[in-house]
Amino acid sequence: MSDNNAYWKANLRLIGFCIAIWFLVSFVFGILLVEQLNTIRLGGYKLGFWFAQQGSIYTFLVLIFFYANRMNKLDKTLGQNEKKD
Amino acid sequence: MDNLKLLTYIAVFGSFALYFAIAWWARAGSTKEFYVAGGGVHPVLNGMATGADWMSAASFIGMAGLIAFNGYGASVFLMGWTGGYLLLAMLLAPYLRKHGKFTVPEFIGDRYYSKTARIVAVLCLIIASLTYVIGQMKGVGVAFSRFLDTDYDTGLYIGMFVVWVYAVFGGMKGITYTQIAQYVVLIFAYTVPAVFISLQLTGNPLPQLGLGSKMVGTDVYLLDKLDLIVTDLGFKEYTTAKLGGTLNMLAYTMSLMIGTAGLPHVIMRFFTVPTVKDARSSAGWALVFISLLYTVAPAVGAMARINLMQTIEPAAGENLVYEERPQWFKTWEKTGLLKFEDKNGDGKIQYVADKATNEMVKVDRDIMVLANPEIALLPNWVIALVAAGGLAAALSTAAGLLLAISSSISHDLMKGVVTPNISEKNELMASRVVMTFSVMVAGYLGLNPPDFAAGTVALAFGLAASSIFPSLMMGVFSKKITSKGAVAGMLAGIGITLFYVFQHKGIMFVPGTSFLGGMEPNWFLGISPNAFGVVGAIVNFVVAYLVSAIDGPIPKEIDDMIENFRVPSGAGSAHDH
Fold this sequence. Notes:
- The complex is a heterodimer.
- By secondary structure, chain A is mostly helical.
- Chain A contains 3 helices and 2 strands.
- Chain A has helices spanning 2-32, 34-37, 47-77, and strands spanning 41-42, 45-46.
- Chain A has a two-stranded antiparallel ribbon with strand order 1-2.
- A two-stranded antiparallel sheet of chain B has the order 1-2.
- Chain B starts with a helix and ends in an 11-residue tail after the last helix.
- The mean pLDDT of chain B is 84.
- Helices cover 69% and strands 1% of the residues of chain B.
- Classes of the chains: A mainly alpha, B mainly alpha.
- The interface between A and B is large, with 47 and 52 residues.
């Protein structure tokens, strides 16, 4: 049971970290700070506009695989063996 | 028959023949195959099927048009409809998969140890999915009538028949493998024209990079050029125009994100993978396949807008003469979705923001993707491909929604509540009968779209965001929420969302019936009705916590059940009881 508790706490920490980045790139960079970031250019893109229409989506992709990967490692170290049937 | 029509017939009926072949190969023999495709779908394939399931006629046809005419403001759709997958991967899919039941209401019924909660969840699911499916059926009818010159009704009947064949015989199994084929068709149909157009305008074959590149033969960036063209004509600057205020954009994005994560036909797809680990990675793969379209869409939107503007006004002050308008212009005029009115009588087309002098009195944003290949003068086979792609997008989403509806009726209401002793064979038969019935209801609603059809997709997201997502999330992450708390929360969340939407748009969207007349539009902090789901979700959370605090602790066995589905070990595949 204590293993399960440690597993759940580690999961919550990881979720907290990923949600923070998720919030930062979409809500903060894409919407709240868009005007400030738009003064910086990324080729033809204004940076705030790029985050809102491209960058946030790429970040979501990285985050989702990062989460899946870290959880797989956690499964192993904390003895969460799934049975397939 | 001209060349274009012949190619379109080949593309459309060729793709249908493929779907039928798959349906025959993937017949379902058990309820487990019918509801969760046997639980053995590879996570990458499930991701692909989820992509087709998720990307509807609205994503394929509608979104680029929204981007073209709203510019930066349309970012709420791009972020909202992708960001939800991260929530799904971290907050819902693994635990629901571990619990291992067939439907979303079944999970809610188990976690909240209550048939009432299960029935309320079924109601939310049916309302959300049925409103959503009307839009898909309309999309099928429109695509047929536009590309194949059949009338709308005939197109709809053909679409109903195709969905019926593979949904009834294959259930989730047939739907899964057809959706994989449909994903391939729709992504080709979307990206091929985009690559062509990006090459034409910027010389860069990748639309994601083309959008940030310079126009061919000039030293001006495409987005700067577009900003200049639209502001010269009095429209809002493309790269900065907001959708409502900042708070509205925040609320809109959040509502779409949690609405996406709470849509039952999407969640259900994650019951089909073999393990909890696969459920997490499969959500990632789904986002990969969805992002292929969603990162291209901003380029399609911006480039369509620039092509449209430059067709009408090739150089400042040199407007297109109406009599010399191109063929696509005439075709779309016939449909009524494009309208010109020569207000100043000079025989030329003026397209400006000012309503008094603007002569393009109607430019329906839904035509942008369909007309784009013609505006860019692409070869006929590309146009034919777009027709097959639009149909694939509408049919795949319709099938997923119909399965969500029919499984909640045959499994949650019949097997779960009304006739618990039904044999597996009879339940399988019942689910096929219910599926047939659902296809007919969806077809009927497509033939006689209720007045509120236009507002329904937004309503579906609002309902999922304010009822299903919060109750699932609290069910996993809190041990405090009791059955009474969950039911009260769901009803309060839906109630307040419906109240706000109907107060703006009339009860069941009938104009003139909005109560509390005389209130400003978007009176709650400037939030539009479509963006209100997040407020409903907050109300759901608060009410559920308050009622649960009074209602007292949850039973010990439910506590154990939560402990069990929070961790992967000991997971079996989806099972019945």
